[in-house]
Amino acid sequence: MLKVLIILQTFLFYPKCFSYTLNSYAAFYHKLMNNFRYFHTFIRIFIKNTKDIYMKYKTIIFALCVWVAGTLSAQSVYPGQFAGKMKLNTVAPVKVESFDLQDVRLLPSRFRDNMLRDSVWMTSIDVNRLIHSFRTNAGIWAGREGGYVTVKKYGGWESLDCELRGHTTGHLLSAYGLMYAATGSEIFKLKGDSIVTELGKVQDALGNGYLSAFPEELINRNIKGQSVWAPWYTLHKLFSGLIDQYLYADNAQALAVVTKMGDWAYDKLKPLSEETRRRMIRNEFGGINESFYNLYAVTGDERYRWLAHFFYHNDVIDPLKEQNDDLGTKHTNTFIPKVLAEARNYELTGDKDSKALSDFFWHTMIDHHTFAPGCSSQKEHYFDTKRFSHFLNGYTGETCCTYNMLKLSRHLFCWQPDARIADYYERALYNHILGQQDPQTGMVCYFLPLLSGAHKVYSTKENSFWCCVGSGFENHAKYGEGIYYRSAAGIYINLFIPSVVRWKEKGITLKQETAFPAGEATVLTVEADRPVRTTVYLRYPSWSEKVTVRVNGKKVQVKRKPGSYIALNRLWQNGDRIEAAYPMRVHLETTPDNPQKGALLYGPLVLAGERGTEGMQAPAPFSNPELYNDYYTYDYHIPAGLKTTMAIDRKHPARVLQRVGKELKFTTEQGDVLRPLYDMHHQRYVVYWDLKDK
Ligand SMILES: [Zn+2]
């Protein structure tokens, strides 16, 4: 019945569908049904909490129709992106460039599954509810009887008494732009446009360029050094979201609104003394200076560069310039975006100090502050790495930290295409980001708990809206951006994710088909109107010992060098086919301070032991909607006696695990079942085992 309804609605509400002939309709129907389970999820989420199923239903079908049959046109701020939209181009010498997001399309995979679930949730967000706090702040009439009948308020960090309210609107502006670029679906453009239009009215009503869901008084408190949560952090999301709307979704009004905000910020901050500046930037301000650098790049207006420099945090960045790992117990996600701003400073001005400190910081993070799944932080903070294993608690791995480390990695990779950066990117993407979304509901996690016997704790639809929900909207919309890179010399294949990349400058398209990581092989097929001489740089991951490569069925000599690139230079013809196989092996990673604590990995995948659901009571594994910020004190009620030990042969860790069938499932003689951490949902798990030598 549901299928019939979908088809009916499709014809009723999407004019493009009328033009389908019977044959093309059959193909369309086939595509539609292939993705039926996403429709089902979509519809289930919608039906739960809506008064107007019909209208929502229409939106769903519209979104899906456009997605299935859609066309594309949009943009992506890494070197090489947004041609024609930047007044200032990258001046730093970069070795490779990023593709625009709209030039990469995901093919069916776990990544695309996440992207579709994300799109379902994003589409379900009600714009009137989202911007209610903005309208309230500006005294704008919000509907019948002031809005309390028609507009049901969102909870969590979007509540009217939360000082971070409005941050989700910023993240969503970015996410709608990203999703529009990644899919070409007009629904995301419409959503973004409608928010920008309404925010423009709020800005006009406030009258001085300021735009926020909270009063300017919060900024005044920050300037006076009085207690306030993080107003510039929140404004950063809006700046960033509006810039992204311009860059990814061609929204010119978004640029007009954000430049007015920039002018307000300049007028507000320019008269302040150095003493006042230093006092106010002690408060978390996110990546506001990165946004000002980007606004500077888009407009060429020096005032925005002044603003970016205003937020240069001397106490934090100066030690990095001296190659000093002075992270202590600072708040991790306050720290990383400040380095992102430095990375943009290097790209736009060529400042070598900014480059050196960004490199130093990245290596310090990866070498000393990162857990096996590629995540960092405990209870959001740095910790004493000499006691690393003591911090494997239920509050490790804030998702925003990994979101930001992936961003930083992409800048560094453009400067120097080092396979090690790609290795980190892959590890954090698979083990952290991919697994942070609940495959049943599309909800996302704040932390990635590494406490043995803990479980992932998901957000709720109405009452969370944590920072990691905001960055979570973006995470699953931009998988396409990290797979390929290009240079004058060739194209880099960094990730083995089924996808198609269109390399406009060379007139070729590469299609990558793979069952990775369940299978070892990936196949790339060339589409080219005419032969093109270039180099395909295939990543040789550090985790694979003996890679084999065939071009058009013929074996290619490969130098055995994990952690490098395999360069395939030839005159590529239409239909040429590259087949690469990346054998994976089981290996053990122990904590730096304790050789008796260790995680097992298969290739880049962290494996986790299943530990069931004993002691998990509703609302677990979801956050309690009655409580605010319960993620921070969440009691996992781990059953006494939960087994955390693993007998191991250190020299031959592979001997401990037996792979079962073709799926990524492993068993041990003791009866443990291990699967990729990204697949560990709605149950307890163990990542770091108490090792017993065999
Ligand atoms: Zn977060």
Description of the structure:
InterPro entries: 6-hairpin_glycosidase_sf, Beta-AFase-like_GH127_cat, Beta-AFase-like_GH127_middle. Residues 490-584 form the Non-reducing end beta-L-arabinofuranosidase-like GH127 middle domain. It holds the Pfam family Beta-AFase-like_GH127_cat. The chain has 694 residues and is α+β, with helices and mostly antiparallel strands. Among the domains are: 2-69, no CATH class; 485-514 and 521-581, Golgi alpha-mannosidase II (Immunoglobulin-like, Sandwich), CATH 2.60.40.1180; 586-693, no CATH class. The chain is 40% helix and 15% strand. It has 21 helices and 21 strands. The strands form three sheets. Strands 13, 14, 15, 16, 17, 18, 19, 20 and 21 form a nine-stranded mixed β-sheet that branches. It has a seven-stranded antiparallel β-sheet with strand order 2-5-6-7-12-9-10, with no helix packed on it. A five-stranded mixed β-sheet has the order 1-3-4-8-11. A hairpin with a 2-residue loop joins strand 9 and strand 10. Helix 11 (231-249) packs parallel to helix 14 (288-299). The protein starts with a helix and ends with a strand. Mean pLDDT is 90; it is low at 1-76. Residues 333, 398-400, 466-468, 471 line the site of zinc ion (ZN).
Brief summary of the model shown:
Among the domains are: 2-69, no CATH class; 485-514 and 521-581, Golgi alpha-mannosidase II (Immunoglobulin-like); 586-693, no CATH class. 40% of the residues lie in helices and 15% in strands.
Query: How would a crystallographer describe the biggest sheet?
Result: 9 strands, mixed
Structure summary, number of beta strands: 21
Query: What is the residue-averaged pLDDT?
Result: 90
- Computed CA radius of gyration, to the nearest angstrom: 25 Å
Distance between the termini: 57 Å
Helix content: 25-40%
Overall body shape:
globular
> What hetero molecules are bound to the protein chains?
zinc ion
Strand content: 5-15%
Poorly predicted ranges: 1-76
**H/I helix tally:** 21
The helix/strand class is alpha+beta
